[in-house]
Amino acid sequence: MGASSTAAQLLGQGLSSMSSSNHSLLSLVLSFNRISDVGAEHIAEGLRWNRSLLSLSLAHNRIGDVGAVKLAEVLQPFKLRHEEVVERRRLLMEEQGQPHAAESSSGHALSLQGSAAAGKLSPAKQRTGTTKKKELLRKDKSKQSKKSTAPSDSRRSRGAKGAIGEQQGTEAGDPAEPRHPLLEPGLHRDGNVILPGNRVLLNLNLSHNRITERGLGALLAAVEEQEEHEGAGGKQGLRCLSLNRNSFSSACAAFTRLQELLLQRDPLPKPAEDEEERSQDP
Asked: What percentage of the chain exceeds 90 in pLDDT?
């Protein structure tokens, strides 16, 4: 693995993994870094569970059809892998509080074992234990009667201060962490769990790479899928996808169709530099 691929792998892991995700990075520029299909695959893996990055530039690299297909896969509905299904079930159980129920049930089992063991003690030991318990109860009652003679005003003031402190701590607490994308509403089809994919990324620049009509077709399918489910879950999807200067003709049908879709989806007018770049195409 080359240095650029290793760096891309680290960047992809920094964007997200199944157990953690970056929530602060909004824009990432990786132009002119000799990123290949292998590096693009690592970055696509990072986009799988990242729901904060809005803009990504991979222009002027060495990405071909394999990398373009991997990027397209995470931008549209995808099947969960086995380990992701297992993690999704664990998160759902944790959200529903089932682990706590399991702890209480195990605790109940331990108490039953304790009572069974107590039943096996000899009568003499049981009487001795009963006598000790009575003595302890008498001591506790005497301590409680002494404490009850103290004034209760101090307790009330301490209780009021404690309640105010708890309320201030709640108001000044950190904001709740976003819900894990694994818990997004999904479809169950043919024994697979299918999630909607990354609909947060708005801008993707893949100009000046090595993508042919095969990779172009995969990206077109991803945009068409997003267009079909526009606004699903409050997410919009790609608004700008730059593919100038790749290994396909700008006059091909797939590129024309993609431009038409993006023109409808992009609320901003095309910058003048794009028009100049097109006019310079051979």
From this structure: 57
